[in-house]
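General statements about sequence and structure are easier to judge against a single worked case. For one protein, we set the task of working out the structure tokens from the amino acid sequence alone. The sequence in question and its structure tokens are set out directly beneath this paragraph.
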Amino acid sequence: MADYKEIVGTKVKAISANPSDPTNGQVWYNSTDEVLRYKKANVAGAWSAGGNLNTGRLAGGMFGTQTASIYFGGAVSFSTTKDIVESYNGSSWTEVADLNAARDYIRGAGISTAGLAFGGEPTTAANESWNGSSWTEVGDLNAARDYHSGAGTQTSALAFAGEDPGGLSAKTESWNGSSWTEVGDLNTARGAGTAAGADNTAALLFAGGPPSFGAAHEATEQWNGTSWTNVADINTASRITSGCGISTEALLMGRFTPSSPTYGNTESWNNTTWTEVSDMSTGVYFAIGSGTTSAGLCVGGRTSPSNKDLASSEEFTAVSTIAVD
């Protein structure tokens, strides 16, 4: 059996006191306490207020990190579709170059300096590429869709689920940097869910259902680059949700449930199960997320059908603790 040095490349250090600022995963032997200790992220985490959008909206798209994100498109009052784009620096939002076409229920993939925005309502196959300062129309999706999900990067992305002119869709499309190719279908057609994923070979779809206010899904499906597999359900069936992360570590945050119109519950995925963690300060739906399980961002949306569109954002931060083996 391999020992710690063979796996990590270094021996476990013996020190008389805990390090002042260890990194997550760091292991050491505390010779004073005579125990092996390590630092780990506490999955519960905590939410705090982030900066406000300049224009409150719902059903927009977003990509990036907690401290560097692009929010694009969306709608005001469920009726006026916007082409507005805003950039987040970790504390405030700044308006930048508009989309070429106004859209809501839009999704995308990438980072703040290199991303994609595809699909949306009015139902479209349009795809735009962001270079950090402007948008350029690039290869369209094969199937026009809205209420869909997206994951990946500017050169390796996925678009899946949603609604197309034929109704709820199970179709998946893979982007290679220049064109979209239809690949394996989902096991369950659905829209209004959310997703996480690093590229077009690994993604996670969770929650969803019909976009109208009705039933909701708890099903989760995981993509391995070839096919989708049903994995553990989320704890509370939800739709019109937001999420972030990768296929093995994801957050579900902000959702609508049939039993409660707004929900601040947050769930964390560890590649095996979903665990309920700290609630958001304000339960939202029609919001959008970006970032990771240790540093997530949830922006915009509404708290009810009758309330105004939110400009607010919330930031999720995992709290690290020192543990004893």
